[in-house]
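example protein:
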Amino acid sequence: MTTPAPYPIGTAGVPWGSAEVAAWLTKQTRHRSYEKDVLSVVDALRSHFDVVEYGRLDYAPNSYPLVAIKSRQWRDDLPCMLVTGGVHGYETSGVHGALRFAQQHASDYAGRINLVVAPCISPWAYERIHRWNPHAVDPNRSFREGSPAQESAALLRLVADWRDRVLMHIDLHETTDTDESEFRPALAARDGVAYEPDEVPDGFYLVDDSEKPQPAFQQAVIAAVAKVTHIAPADRNGQIIGSPVVAPGVIEYPLRKLGLCAGITPARYTTTTEVYPDSPKTSPEQCIAAQVAAVCAAIDFALAHA
């Protein structure tokens, strides 16, 4: 029998209430600056792109503008491509991969696509290097009508007018050692269930949509990333994080059913990236480069098969 991992907040087997959430919140510390790391980079792109403030998070005493980079020459006859990062604020290369792509490659697609890049969906969590928002809610299980997460609701409002025209959506994530040392034990404690340890995959992998899989698209992204960093192998059970590996470096989830970010549009081509920054085989810079390679490959494939 698996016993709950000890966690310093709450009572084993009992879901958290408001007191436990408040106790958890007092332990969250600001480690970095959203304004310095994200907003300043976005501001420098204003000469080439439109910058849209699509919402604001008011988490006293902090307030965070939510920003997206958008093609200046938006045309109704062009396919829409959506890039999102930082749904989980602690997943650093997702944020900086989205920004790096916007800085170095987005202009290459001018006149060919309508592009939207939302680089940091969860700025409060980015600053605190955390997975949840201050209400202990995971935004990446909350992309649905009546969302309990302001971060998720704001992104849904951003895409509402053009969601049905999105051809490709790539959502940039990481899987880290803290998934097992902190975040999954915290989740088990929050929900009052037993924590069951799992392996952290060593390498890059993708999550396809099990309800409308696109295996050729996923493999095109994997092939591009393999030139930058290593692809995660299956574990001894032929799985990655408890899901069967359907192709090298690819698993599947029902994205919309689970309320995941990559399921917010009916796009033909969708994927969630996962890279492992704690691996001795890679570096933070390689992880960012892998995210950029994934975005470019995803857009290129979607354009070629539109």
Notes: The two ends are 50 Å apart (CA to CA).
